[in-house]
Design goal:
Blueprint (H helix, E strand, L loop, with lengths): L2 E3 L6 E2 L20 E3 L1 H15 L3 E7 L4 H10 L20 E8 L28 H16 L3 E3 L2 E6 L20
Parallel strand pairs: 2-4
Antiparallel strand pairs: 1-3, 4-5, 5-7, 6-7
GO molecular function: D-Ala-D-Ala dipeptidase activity; metallopeptidase activity; zinc ion binding
EC number: 3.4.13.22
Pfam family, one: Peptidase_M15
Length: about 180
């Protein structure tokens, strides 16, 4: 059963696929909801606590992604290294992945990461030397916080983290998101 992530959890939410501010240029979610499996939610809250100890907050761009949305991204992205094949279920549709960044806790300002979220570009990779050194340090900080909380990175996307062995969970459709307020 998927569990919601809310600002009451001490997280910042910027669910991009509910807005036109994403790589498709159009909303692909009906509403800005972020959900994860209980194990993933617990690990994210552990990362939140580690970030808070450093004066930082986590900002969530995406979490559970219904299969219908996975198909929309599959058709929108030319470089398939940046989107999982929906025929294989993907990772986000299992509620086992999160896309996020770090923000200053006092101001809410995002730490620079060298590229934007969902930049389909080689510079988005962890360890890319095409981004400024300070941005590399911010990526390394996010990586350290997430790995210490039990997440695995996707090496081509600094913002994407997933549970170990995510395919042990079933892929879900939009019907997994309950109606009404979260």
């Amino acid at each position: 059963m998927l569990q919601p992530l809310t600002e009451a959890d001490g997280l910042l939410l910027d669910i991009r696929y509910a807005t036109p501010d994403n790589l498709t240029g159009a909303p692909i979610y009906r509403r800005p909801v972020a959900m994860l499996l209980p194990e993933a939610r617990a690990r994210l809250l552990a990362a939140r606590d580690r970030a808070a100890a450093l004066g930082l907050r986590l900002k969530i761009f995406d979490a559970f992604r219904p299969m219908e949305a996975q198909w929309a991204l599959w058709h929108a992205v030319e470089d398939k290294r940046f989107v999982s094949d929906p025929r294989l279920g993907g990772v986000h549709p299992r509620g086992a992945a999160v896309d996020l960044t770090l923000c200053d806790a006092a101001t809410g300002a995002e730490l620079p990461m060298g590229t934007g979220f969902d930049a389909v570009d080689a510079a988005s990779a962890h360890g890319s030397l095409a981004v400024p050194v300070a941005d590399q340090r911010n990526r390394a900080l996010l990586l350290g916080l997430m790995v210490a909380a039990g997440w695995e990175p996707y090496l081509l996307e600094w913002w994407h983290y997933q549970l170990p062995q995510p395919r042990r969970f079933p892929a879900l459709s939009a019907s997994a998101v309950p109606e009404g307020p979260m």
